[in-house]
Amino acid sequence: MLYQKASKLLRINRSDIESLEIIRHSIDARKKPDIFDVYMVDLSVKTGSYERIVKKCKDNNISVVSVAKYNFEEMAKAAKTKVSEHIDKDGKIVIVGAGPAGLFCAYMLSEAGYKPLVIERGSDVDKRLHAVEAFWSGKELDEHTNVQFGEGGAGTFSDGKLNTMVKDKDGRGRKALSIFVEHGASDDIMYEAKPHIGTDILCRVIKSMREKIKERGGEFMFDSKVDELMLDETGKLTGVKVADKIISCSCAVLAIGHSARDTFYMLKDKKVNIEPKPFAVGFRVEHPQSIINLSQYGVADPKSLPASPYKLVMNTDKGRGVYSFCMCPGGYVVNASSEKGRLAVNGMSYSARDSRNANSAIIMTVSPKDFGGDDVLSGVEFQRRLEEKAFEIGKGKIPVEYYGDFKKAVSGNDSSFDKNNNGDASKAVPENELIKELDKKTNLPCMKGEYSFAEVHKILPDELNRDFIQGMEKFGRMIKGYNSDGALVSGIESRTSSPVRIPRGDDGVSTNIRGLYPCGEGAGYAGGIMSAAMDGIKTAELIAASIMN
Q1: CB 295 within 8 Å of CB 448
Q2: Among 82-86, 97-101, 238-242, 269-273, which stretch is predicted with the lowest mean pLDDT?
Q3: CB 457 within 8 A of CB 465
Q4: Deepest of 54, 66, 253, 541, by most Cβ within 10 A of its Cβ?
């Protein structure tokens, strides 16, 4: 069908099209219930001038393009002007962390002929799956291997969403997607507007990538935490300490993820430059997927369409940002804790996205002035206090509260939060049976991990609770039923991004520890699987450039 459509638009014969590749696919539901598939395709023709064909079409959607393919060697050569020191080509390259940043850095270096050593505090993905499933079924939390730590990083248990806001002018993002496909992901991630792999498939992909790195000479050390950086008298990195063993290295990539709090404290003790940075906190919100489908597609059960996602953004009257984050169609809220006595949640989906509920984090931006301290790691302690409160309120289980009860407890008789108010709140919802059923507060959570109904409204400070409610009421005007009394609220969503940034120069090296390459989400340079993978690839280029130099 695409060939026929393309030949008609180009006014050429179908047989004149030599090849056609889908570059992007999205769903246009703006005129629901009429819903359209929208494709961007790249094609070549057998004969004729491309410019003449485009001119004859008189269609602004058709143009002649030149596609540049990613080339690691060329990117590394181009980066030589940025590097300021030489790395011994025979020295060991250590990568701390096997999340997407560390894994893709190792993958690209191994593809270029280098033999990196990846040190990961958690277990390999098979053992990690076993530990996480055991925890979700009620067993004790393993603080070394959990939803945050282990092969694949935190993104392994958050749906494998591959969308990113980072521009891909150098082709690193497309290169990362092609590597995922090469190792078992569906090839539709190369063109879907909102690509995802799914936790179940992502685990297999990660394992395949690891085996390819090892096949090329790379090494992995699992269940091994880097306890200390070894520095010479000038402050240059000479090695890393793991338990009682010192591993000498020419450089180390610090791809530790956003939850390596003990490592942040170690870096502070070693006088590594660290800066506090803003992030966001909030709650997971669940609705029946049918409610979301009805709003987005016009039908509750669109049999030929995927479970619908959504994206919501607003600013409160005081200027604080409130927005949806890590939205999981047909997904699960998961217990994502990594420290005993503290509880954090996240969201995930399997590849089928077929659970009863949709969930998303609804989060509010916070900055150092909200953290309650001047220390560089005050953001870490802010997160910990919230997680301790969530653990206490839920008695160790995920605390859940119906939105109607949450709102009543926070706002009392404040009419500005009334769903029928004409101000910033939602107008009366239409007489829809699905929404009326949701308002009865009979919907139950879809969760991985034990949960209990509790006073979720007691976790966050009152100011943030009120910002959350203001956001929910505004979102109820965008998606009918979103602010229904029966929507489920659970918490705390505290691990949205790193609470710190480790400054680095254009050469990728820490500003005060030579040989140390801060990388990915934990270092403050990424915000998801794809941006972390792209930063890992970029760091690999800079390391290769330093070896070439």
Answers
A1: no
A2: 82-86
A3: yes
A4: 253
